Amino acid sequence: MNAPLPDAASAEVAAAALERARAKRRAQTRAAVLRQVVQWHWISAAVCLAGMLLFAITGITLNHAGDIKAEPKTVTRDGELPADLLGALKAAEAAGGDLPAPVRAWLASELKVKAPAGPVEWSPGEAYVALPGPGSDGWVTLESATGAVAYERTERGWVAYLNDLHKGRNTGKAWAWFIDIFAVACVLFSVTGLLLLQLHAHARKSTWPLVGLGLLVPVLLALFLIH
Questions:
Q1: What are φ and ψ of residue 171, in 5° steps?
Q2: Which burial class, exposed, middle or buried, applies to 48 when counting CB atoms under 10 A from its CB (0-12, 13-18, 19+)?
Q3: At a CB cut-off of 8 Å and minimum separation 6, what does 125 contact?
Q4: pLDDT tens per residue, range 36-54
Q5: Four-CA torsion 94, 95, 97, 100, nearest 10 degrees
Q6: In the Cβ-directed half-sphere of 81, how many Cα atoms lie within 13 Å?
Q7: Which residues of 76-97 are buried (b: 16+ CB within 10 A; e: fewer)?
Q8: Is pLDDT at 186 greater than 90 in this prediction?
Q9: How far apart are CA 166 and CA 155, in angstroms?
Q10: Does the pTM of the predicted model rise above 0.70?
């Protein structure tokens, strides 16, 4: 029969086994965290891909907007509001209210003008509706006395359109929600990327110097070269 191990030796064996178990749990926890970080990193990267390309490219075009030549195109249309709708327009003018729905429907069908349901700028005898959009500006006027309708729209080209998408200019609530969601996804992408850098930094000695350089360069530019 083998002689029993002394108490000290037994304690050492137990401590070693406990330490191995702890090391195994730490390794399992680290692997689980790494899997989650990688998963969220690639998901956020997939969500951000198209938007990030759009905002990166339009960042360049915005920075060189003065160097990119565009030929604005202006479209004008005229018409006359039917007599049966003229009364509704006059009633809206008297109340200082919105453009009546039948009048907006007529504009859409006859002049291909999508007038919003919001407030109208009223002046004596005339309704003015601004029609701004990304990469474009427009307006329509309706004379309450004669029913004369005038429409004008100026398109500044695709580059101006994309630049306005970048700025969120005249793009509506849906695009504003997209920008907010895209921004959250970009934050998630950046944070998970930072965590991955942290997890792999021990094997890549240049990680933190490069991160520091990426932080230092814009700070120095902002402090010394921006007037």
A1: -110, -5
A2: buried
A3: 143, 144, 145
A4: 889 999 999 999 999 999 9
A5: -60
A6: 29
A7: eeebebeeebbebbeebbeeee
A8: yes
A9: 17
A10: yes
